[in-house]
Amino acid sequence: MSTAAALFVAVVVVLASPLLASSQQQTPAMMTSPPPPPSPAATNNSRLESAYVALQALKRAITDDPKNLTHSWCGPDVCNYFGVYCAAAPDDACARTVAGVDLNHGDLAGTLPEEIGLLADLAVFHLNSNRFSGSLPNSLGNLHRLHEIDVSNNHLSGSFPSQLLCLPDLKYVDLRFNNLCGEVPEAIFEKKIDALFINNNNFDFKLPASFTNSTASVIVLANLPRLGGCLPSSIGDMAGTLNELILLNSGISSCIPPEIGKLDKLKVLDLSFNSLAGELPGEIGHMTALEQLNVAYNGLAGEIPESICELPHLKNFTYSHNFFCGEPHRCLEVPRVDDSQNCIAGRPDQRSAEECIGFLHRPPVRCDAHGCIAPPSPPPPVHYAPPPPLRIGSGMQVD
Predict the structure, then answer these.
(1) SS3 assignment for 37-99
(2) What's an example Gene Ontology biological process for this entry (predicted)?
(3) With contact defined as beta carbons under 8 Å apart, do 230 and 371 qualify?
(4) What is the largest CA-CA distance in the chain?
């Protein structure tokens, strides 16, 4: 991103930073004072004229506006529209352009029209916590200056918006809490983004090998029960940037690779409600920035490594509903710890003896080179000794 473009995005984020927090205190429908006199007709450049077409199309596509947020969306002066932010264009300091649209928490219902693609200089597009339905328009691929898109907590459907993959400046992608389905393209993990939230959708795909190529600092793939796949040993390659990894309830069937210990910048790791097996690797004790670790509701066993409980910043360690058989006393000194429903002698609220004994009689877990749980080894072949030779009479032998 060029210096001018970076400055453009910074200005937009600063302008839009209050979001709707202040507007919720005094939305257009809630104002009791008389409206101000109409401003003189704006002199629009071609960018603002295109923005006018796009925003009017969006207004027409809104079928319910209970807070009357688009009441001011009349006339050509789009920079005075509620939730619309203008700034100097990054390639022409003398030209104003629409740089941000923020209608978060508006409870708006409707669809998103293709005319959105006319907002060619848009850097921030925030529509979270509304009731928009339908698919995301293909014309999003025209928003080459887009830096942030947040359409979370809506009723959007259709496939993953692959048109986002061609946007060079995109850094923040938030699609969570919608009804999106189908495959998630592997290329999203190759893209140089900073945050990816796609949780609570209906995506159906396997965690790809390219997952560990991501440079994002925050990745949330939670509550995607059709995700599946394994935690690859290459997960350590994400050490340079990853701060939060949330994979809870994502159908992961895997061992936890020891290479995870290379993630020394990771603060939050949530692998709960999956099908993890094997032991908790002691290498997690090398993750010196870790503050929250949750591996509850899996099939992990063995002893809790003391090195994990000695991590200097660990505040919350949850390993309940597994089959651990021992924990160092140091673990009970973590500020918030939950060791319930395991097989730890002398601790309250543990599994029954029958459950624990039954688990011990299961075949040992093996993981292959990719971190996936391998099928049990076949039993060794049974070799039967040949029968003794048959003897007939006292002096005869039949071979």
Answers:
(1) CCCCCCCCCHHHHHHHHHHHHHHHHEEECCCCHHHHCCCCCHHHCCCEEEEEECCEEEEEEEE
(2) cell wall organization
(3) yes
(4) 129
| Residue 2 amino acid letter | S
If you write DSSP's letter for every residue of 156-171 in order, what string do you get?
EEEE--GGGGG-TT--
Give the whole-angstrom CA distance, residue 83 versus residue 20: 8
The whole-number pLDDT of residue 36 equals 46
pLDDT tens digits for 299-341?
999 999 999 999 999 999 999 999 999 999 999 999 999 999 9
Number of alpha carbons in the 13 Å side-chain half-sphere of residue 150: 16
Q: What is the pLDDT of residue 33?
A: 43
Domain coordinates in residue numbering, the chain: 1-28+42-182, 201-376
Fold of 201-376: 3.80.10
Cβ pair 296, 257 in contact under 8 A: no
The model's confidence at residue 398, banded by pLDDT at 50, 70 and 90, is low
Q: What is the pLDDT of residues 333-386, one digit of tens each?
A: 999 999 999 999 999 999 999 999 999 999 888 887 777 887 766 666 766 667
Residue 379 carries which DSSP code?
P
Whether domain 1-28+42-182 has CATH 3.40.50.2030: no
pLDDT at 27 over 60: no
